[in-house]
Write a structure and sequence with these properties.
This protein has about 270 residues and is of the alpha/beta class. It has eight helices and twelve strands. Strands 4, 8, 9, 10, 11 and 12 form a six-stranded mixed beta sheet that branches. A three-stranded antiparallel beta sheet has the order 2-1-3. Strands 5-6-7 form a three-stranded antiparallel beta sheet, with helices on one face. Strand 5 and strand 6 form a beta hairpin. Helix 1 packs across helix 2 and helix 1 crosses helix 3. The chain is flat.
């Protein structure tokens, strides 16, 4: 077995946010984990506390967490469920007999409601980097030639400074809905800001968040057998705000954790 095949992850038994002080004390048992890691993982841990651990470190950390009252499981990373590739959806319809998904060229694909296995929704915080064009600075010679520019254009051309760009980091949020089909063979993703809510008809509201909530509630109503993440659960309970995830990683991590829980749930009758 390769080195990559012997790395382990520590998974939470529940999605309760662990106490930071408990994590700090437990992390001191493993070389390479710091107090700063405890703060980061407490804020961004949505099912998977730590990954990429050796077998010895994984067992040591699990024991230290148990002393602190934090119940966990040690899982081989290759045994964690893999999310299927994303299919982006900008328009669909919730009909009584099927979820009708439209592709990029308008073709319709009906999906039976009983084929929906998992529904994940939430407001997801993203970090984006955008290129912004800035006015390039002029050399002293170029500045001196500016008043003569109309005359100089008749003769030899004078080179202008090349465009300059700077990369700026910004924080934004997006409303995301993901629908996973049975056996995790397909994953549809809807970004609220790009979705056309035409199917709502007279129910369509002025605010994006309201339309997004109606969409998620419709999907859950027609697919009551599906398991849901916290964001979808709170929308089903008619909360006023959409549950926020600190990152896309946290949003996906919670889905992975739920799929792992499903795969390892006790079988009925056994």
């Amino acid at each position: 077995m390769t080195e990559a095949g012997t790395r382990f992850a520590i998974l939470q038994r529940s999605l309760e946010i662990p106490d930071v002080e408990k994590l700090k004390r437990a992390f001191r048992s493993v070389k390479g984990l710091t107090d700063s890691d405890a703060h980061t993982l407490a804020n961004d841990g949505f099912g998977i506390l730590v990954n990429n651990l050796s077998p010895t470190d994984a067992m040591t950390l699990q024991g230290a967490l148990q002393v602190e009252g934090v119940e966990t499981a040690v899982v081989l990373e290759t045994d964690l469920p893999q999310l299927p590739p994303t299919k982006f959806v900008h328009q669909m319809d919730c009909l009584p007999n099927a979820l009708v998904v439209q592709d990029a060229i308008g073709r319709e694909f009906p999906v039976a409601w009983d084929q929906i296995m998992l529904i994940a929704a939430g407001r997801v915080r993203l970090t984006v980097f955008e290129q912004e064009r800035v006015t390039p600075s002029q050399s002293p010679l170029q500045a001196a030639l500016v008043p003569w520019w109309p005359v100089l254009r008749i003769g030899r051309s004078v080179s202008q400074p090349a465009p300059e760009y700077v990369s700026r980091e910004s924080q934004l949020t997006r409303l995301l809905l993901e629908v996973l089909l049975a056996r995790a063979v397909t994953r549809f993703q809807i970004e609220g800001e790009r979705f056309r809510f035409d199917y709502l008809g007279e129910r369509k509201r002025p605010e994006l968040a309201e339309n997004f909530a109606l969409l998620v509630q419709d999907v859950m109503r027609f697919a009551p057998q599906a398991i849901v993440n916290r964001g979808a659960y709170f929308l089903r309970e008619n909360t006023t705000a959409v549950f926020e995830y600190p990152s896309k990683h946290a949003f996906y991590e919670e889905t992975t954790w739920m799929l792992w829980q499903m795969a390892n749930a006790p079988k009925q009758g056994l």
